[in-house]
Design a protein that fits this description.
The protein is an alpha/beta fold. It folds into two domains: about 1-30, no CATH class; about 30-275 and about 320-405, TIM Barrel, CATH 3.20.20. The chain is about 45% helix and about 10% strand. The chain has 18 helices and ten strands. The radius of gyration is 23 Å and the shape is globular. The protein starts with 10 loop residues before the first helix and ends in a 10-residue tail after the last helix. Bound molecules: zinc ion. Zinc ion (ZN) binds near residues 217 and 238.
Length: about 425
């Protein structure tokens, strides 16, 4: 194709010349990143697992302002378009075993109440799905809370009511070890063969109260029992797909992902590289083995400085294989293929997985990078809206509605 001057022009350029001749101009194609940023602001982004409470417990960080460390703070959340990061009320298994679970849970909830109370222009506690939308309408970031490890319930439904009253929206049944409710995916000792007798009772109690059940961290047997017993859809608040990390039971296998789809729930994909790629998993396993060897050979006490800096030195000598945005997209693609577009969401685990986040998804300002990737892979805006938060809000509302029909009206704060 030649222009009148004899130089070669692209088809688009020729079209532009022709249209200009009849008084039209050609708009340049929209910048994909600009479009992704616009969508991040337009759509509700719900992230079902952010470990800010535990971070606040262990640092003086003020997340209402820009912070040097960590993955979450208000300014970065605004850039990322994040509307509702679920604050994880995380109870380590050893705290639970030592009898400190209830005190820690209340302390972490206090911290989030204080954060919202001190900065009412930036944050708002959110205890029902409508709160998320109201916070957003008033220019604030909603802070719903989910419990990670049901230890604080201590076999007492009165305690469950206490945490519901305090604003807990979902309950993750276990963490890294079996507790009084269920077995854990990380714990080879199967105490219950799935759910404990109280765990079975708790499923019905959570259903009745309109609270979400989080199946992340529980053993496979416990998962299948929950699926069988729960009258309402469940969530996997921060789990990825085992297909990509064979043998890593903390992730969900294909049959489990399909079951979540049939159940009407949502799998919220975890961004930690160790949840995403086999390479990062193998790295973690090798590092752990090297650590145990070093401890055995050195004979050093656990609190010796060389023991505590082992991880840093190991990383200097062995660069960490960070995953990429495309790895997260691969998990989303497969989860969508298995469970359906209505059953996939985001559960980053920001502030919970250390320095293992993928290149391009290092903190809460980065959701637009993920959105750009979804657009690149052909997801429609409707699909993207569902993945970012629509699916999670739908399940949250539905489960709360089930509770309302049983006399437990949703508790809204706004
Ligand atoms: Zn977790």
């Amino acid at each position: 194709m030649r222009s009148v001057r004899g130089t070669r022009l692209s088809r688009t350029a020729v079209l532009a010349v022709l249209l200009a001749a009849v008084g039209c101009t050609v708009q340049p194609p929209p910048d994909p990143m600009a479009r992704a940023h616009a969508l991040a602001q337009r759509f509700v982004i719900v992230d079902t697992h952010v470990d800010v409470p535990y971070r606040l417990q262990n640092s003086d960080d003020d997340v209402a302002a820009a912070t040097a460390g960590g993955d979450f703070d208000y300014p970065r959340a605004v850039v990322g378009g994040l509307d509702a990061p679920f604050m994880s009320i995380y109870i380590p298994a050893d705290v639970d075993a030592a009898g400190g679970a209830q005190a820690l849970a209340d302390e972490l909830i206090d911290r989030i109440e204080r954060l919202a109370g001190t900065h009412p222009d930036k944050f708002a506690l959110a205890t029902c799905a409508a709160d998320v939308l109201r916070a957003r309408d008033t220019g604030r970031i909603a802070l719903p809370m989910g419990m990670e490890n049901g230890g604080p319930i201590a076999g007492d439904l009165g305690r469950l009511d206490h945490y519901r009253d305090r604003g807990i929206v979902y309950v993750g049944l276990t963490h890294s070890r079996a507790n009084h409710i269920a077995d854990s995916s990380y714990d080879l000792n199967e105490r219950w063969g799935g759910l404990s007798p109280f765990g079975r009772e708790l499923i019905e109690a959570l259903n009745d109260r309109g609270m979400l059940i989080d199946v992340s961290h529980i053993s496979d047997k416990a998962f299948w029992q929950v699926i069988e017993l729960s009258a309402t859809p469940v969530i996997a608040s921060h789990s990825s797909l085992r297909h990509f990390t064979p043998g890593f039971h903390r992730n969900m296998d294909d049959a489990m992902v399909e079951a979540i789809g049939r159940n009407g729930g949502v799998v919220q994909i975890n961004f930690g590289s160790g949840f995403l790629t086999r390479t990062a998993r193998e790295y973690s396993d090798a590092q752990q083995a090297a650590f145990l060897r070093f401890r055995a050979q050195s004979g050093l006490e656990p609190d010796h400085p060389e023991i505590t800096t082992f991880g840093v030195r190991y990383r200097e000598q062995n660069p960490y294989p960070f995953a990429t945005v495309d790895d997260v997209l691969d998990h989303i693609d497969r989860a969508v293929a298995l469970a359906g577009i209505d059953h996939v969401g985001l559960g980053s685990d920001y502030d919970g997985v250390g320095d293992s986040l993928p290149t391009g998804l290092k903190d809460v300002s980065a959701y637009p990078n993920l959105i750009a990737g979804l657009l690149r892979r052909g997801y429609t805006e409707t699909d993207i809206e569902k993945i970012l938060g629509g699916n999670t809000l739908r399940v949250w509302q539905g489960v709360a509605g089930y509770g309302a029909a049983r006399g437990y009206s949703p508790i809204c704060r706004l």
